[in-house]
Amino acid sequence: MAFFESDIVQDEAKRLFGDYQQLMQLGSEYGKFDREGKKKFIETMEELMGRYRVFMKRFELSEDFQAKLTVEQLRTQLSQFGITPEQMFEQMNATLERMKAQIELPPSS
Q1: Domain total for the chain?
Q2: Which 3 state secondary structure label does DSSP give 108?
Q3: What is the pTM of this model?
Q4: What is the mean pLDDT of residues 53-78?
Q5: What is the domain extent for residue 77?
Q6: Inter-residue contact 59 to 71 (CB < 8 Å)
Q7: Sign of CA dihedral 48, 53, 58, 59
Q8: Cα–Cα distance measured from residue 23 to residue 74, given in angstroms and rounded to the nearest whole number
Q9: pLDDT above 90 for 101
Q10: Is 66 a domain residue?
């Protein structure tokens, strides 16, 4: 069975994409969240990034030609921005860490 024909791969891709879209829509209101809402948003984003990292690792470990091609296409697209997939994840994590630090600061008056 081809990598992309796997029910597991298809289901997780749909869930990841759907969860990401919902989180981005919710994130547009991030500035209006209270401290606990911001914490929950960051935790949910971290969970999603973890799931995405695992999903991409499946592609990298697969022997399927289409999966390998997908990984190479991602690497090519990111290289146009001067980064690797690993750097992309590092930047996402750094952004989430900055967001965490901001909500830990006492409110300025």
Answers
A1: 1
A2: coil
A3: 0.81
A4: 92
A5: 8-33+52-104
A6: yes
A7: positive
A8: 22
A9: yes
A10: yes
Query: 74 CB contacts (<8 Å, ≥6 apart)?
Result: 56, 85
DSSP string, 18-45: HHHHHHHHHHTTGGG--HHHHHHHHHHH
3-state secondary structure of 100: helix
Contact present, 68 and 62 (Cβ < 8 Å): yes
Q: 83 lies in a domain?
A: yes
Assess if residue 42 is contained within a domain: no
Let me know: does 67 contact 3? Beta carbons within 8 Å. yes
- Per the domain annotation, does 47 fall within a domain? no
Q: What is the mean pLDDT of the chain?
A: 90
Contacts of 96 (CB under 8 A, 6+ apart): 42, 45, 46, 49
Q: Are 96 and 45 in contact (CB under 8 A)?
A: yes
| Unique residue bearing structure tokens 């901001």 | 102
